Amino acid sequence: MTIIGRNDLCWCNSGKKYKKCHLRSDERGETSPPGVVAKTRTPTVLPGGVSPSLTVPREIGRPEYAESGRPTEKKMSCKKSNKDQIERMRHAGRVAREVLDTVLAAVKPGITTDELDKIAHARTIALGAYPSPLNYMGFPKSICTSANEVVVHGIPDGRKLVNGDIINCDITVFAEGMHGDCSETVFVGNVDEDSQKLVRVTWECLMKGIDVVRPGELFNSIGRVIEQHATESGFSVVREFTGHGIGQYFHMAPYIAHFYEPGNKMLIEEGMTFTIEPMINAGSAECLFWNDKWTAVTKDLARSAQFEHTILVTADGAEILTGGREPFFLK
């Protein structure tokens, strides 16, 4: 039996690396000849000990689900109709960005994701805001931390980050009656070239999606350009999770797919506020869930990356409410 690694030459004698040739079709059980198998990946992230949820001072304004854990089911438009709403969205976006920058500055080998959660929680409270994930449908922590093969909604715990990891830190805050939402995937120490490319392409996907936003454009244009760039770069787009309208409520209509939906004829309108947050996988697009019912991981345990911004649709394009256009690796 011949066992082939991702960076070995493909069994078909094409001269290409296995990951660039038959890896994906072999993982689907379609093409590998008898006696040839891919190296089985093992998880790099396992469930760890989760500390008790942190508390929020009573004087901090909080969303409707803060006590009950049940978000509103009322569907409201994400379109902002007046200057006050837009200014409060801008404020929430600025706070979210500041918290995210504080957390990312602390990312290093040896720190636990639980410590990152505590840093984010303290900074959010200091800025007079509520950490939106806390008790949203029972979520126990103030941020999401998704490392390596974890796609989204990783629960901060006692696992220490190690050299070579990549990690997405997802921050949402509730400030002045509005939610601001952003995330970024960063390197932990020295990261291999394949992971560097995955992270860079994921950021490019986000920016390409933002660049097509303007009044009168179809929402499916966002997914079209993201999916095209991801697949041309050798990656796949997660389909289980999408962007969403945001404002007074954490999640609002419409959803924003990061893949092309030819039947979606909904138009983008000036004044809308929503997130674009592509999750891009190095291997299969399929996800599995841990027993905690939150943590989603890639089915094949290949790495995943994500970037996210909250945006406001303006008369001639999009205003990014949660920071500038440059990620950490371009600064």
Task: Explain what this protein looks like in three dimensions.
Helix 2 runs antiparallel to helix 3 and helix 4 runs antiparallel to helix 5. The chain has two domains: 37 residues, no CATH class; 248 residues, Creatinase/methionine aminopeptidase superfamily (Creatine Amidinohydrolase, Alpha-Beta Complex). It is 23% helix and 21% strand. Strands 3, 4, 6 and 7 form a four-stranded antiparallel beta sheet that branches. It has 331 residues and is α+β, with helices and mostly antiparallel strands. A hairpin with a 6-residue loop joins strand 13 and strand 14. It starts with a strand and ends in an 11-residue tail after the last strand.
What does the secondary structure layout of this molecule look like, with pairings?
Layout: E1 2-4, H1 23-27, E2 36-38, H2 83-106, H3 113-126, E3 130-131, E4 144-147, E5 150-152, E6 166-175, E7 178-187, H4 193-211, H5 220-232, E8 236-237, E9 243-245, E10 252-256, E11 273-276, E12 279-281, E13 287-289, E14 296-298, E15 304-306, E16 309-314, E17 317-320
Helix pairs in contact: 2-3, 4-5
